[in-house]
Amino acid sequence: MSLYQDIASYQPFNEQEMQDKHLLLSLLKSGQELYTRNNEVCHLTASAWVCSPDRTKVLMCYHNIYNSWSWLGGHADGERDLASVALREVREESGLTQVRLVSPSVYSLEVLTVEGHEKRGAYVSSHLHLNLTYLIEADPMEPLKTKPDENSGLAWFGLDEAVAASSEPWFAKRIYPKLNDKLAGCQGGTPSGE
After folding, report:
1. Average of per-residue pLDDT across 41-53
2. E strand or H helix at 22, and its extent?
């Protein structure tokens, strides 16, 4: 299934997802290059909501650029399989090796604003991340290893603790609670509604 079809078949969880789904589909139809950072205005990213097998904990990293506890993820950088991007980013950013997609389907979608910032000594202008989130499962007992150029901490949090740990107001109000609400609806390892 193409990314466009995957997003088109996705059932929005709330108004934010409904509006963002419409924008994502419009941008994908526009023919713009979205899979690489060559598009300085907007490009595709993949995030992971990494949960424990019993769905009571989620893994967060302390993100160096945003100075906040945050989900894991990164840029597509030319890759067209965004679920693979999410898995790759979790492995790179956490050191975890035993991770699995709970489902290959999109778990959540968001259009995220990114403020201008310094990265590796160069200024990056403000832009949008066209983000797809995937639900990934990992063992909280597996050792964690930071990726110093991106994060300075990794920790498992209870669901409410993860929201409280974020110092990014929009994520703490709109994104992480939504991901947790959806997690509460997972039955038998699969997100409800699939």
Report:
1. 97
2. helix 15-29
